[in-house]
Amino acid sequence: EPEVTQTPSHQVTQMGQEVILRCVPISNHLYFYWYRQILGQKVEFLVSFYNNEISEKSEIFDDQFSVERPDGSNFTLKIRSTKLEDSAMYFCASSVQGVSSPLHFGNGTRLTVT
Amino acid sequence: KQEVTQIPAALSVPEGENLVLNCSFTDSAIYNLQWFRQDPGKGLTSLLLIQSSQREQTSGRLNASLDKSSGRSTLYIAASQPGDSATYLCAVTINAGGTSYGKLTFGQGTILTVHP
After folding, report:
1. Do the chains contact at B49 and A101, CB–CB below 8 Å?
2. Could you read off the pLDDT of B77-111 as tens digits, one per residue?
3. DSSP secondary structure, chain B, as one string
4. Which of residues 9-38 of B touch A (CB under 8 A)?
5. pLDDT for B95
6. In chain A, which residues have pLDDT < 50?
7. Residues of A with CB under 8 A from a CB of B
């Protein structure tokens, strides 16, 4: 069964550095998302992306964050100038028809900012 | 602002028991509700998706019901097995005038342990 793949599985970075988290959504899916889960807290929505543009974003997704679909297969989340509080598990997800169809999540990238 | 709450926070049962997990949400104007399973160190796996017009969905030993007016959903697991041990999350999508791209609001989850 096709799945969403995320790399790396774990990323350690120093405060102030830029990181790029990578995702390969399922090939026939059209809607892409980033969510995050801080340890011990709820899964939180960051951003949704459709037709090569951001369709919705949360208040968490400020100017520090950006998303890109650089080619036909990859979907990336860039965090500029990371902060300690950015430490979390970041999940990429995709779906065929927005939330009318189930979201398929990757296994996540654990980001640790030191 | 939509708030999603799940009870209990944790549940431990012997193998073979039928069990019910509860989810409540504060804003009944939802587009749909999904139940997910999360294994340690893994992503979320969608179990069931209930559209706002539906009352329930079934998949194998799982049955999810939705009562939109009261802001509640339940996930029923029949004949539980040790392999069912995981965290179960519910998430709702708000009905944004018929357009919804994927902003799920999650509960904090129920940690289920099924012991042999």
Report:
1. yes
2. 999 999 999 999 999 997 665 555 668 999 999 99
3. ---EEEE-SEEEEETT--EEEEEEES---EEEEEEEEE-TTS-EEEEEEEETT-SEEEETTEEEEEETTTTEEEEEE-S--GGG-EEEEEEEEE--TT-----EEE---EEEEEE-
4. 31-32, 34, 36
5. 67
6. none
7. 4, 31, 33, 35, 41-45, 48, 50, 55-56, 58, 91, 93, 95, 98-108
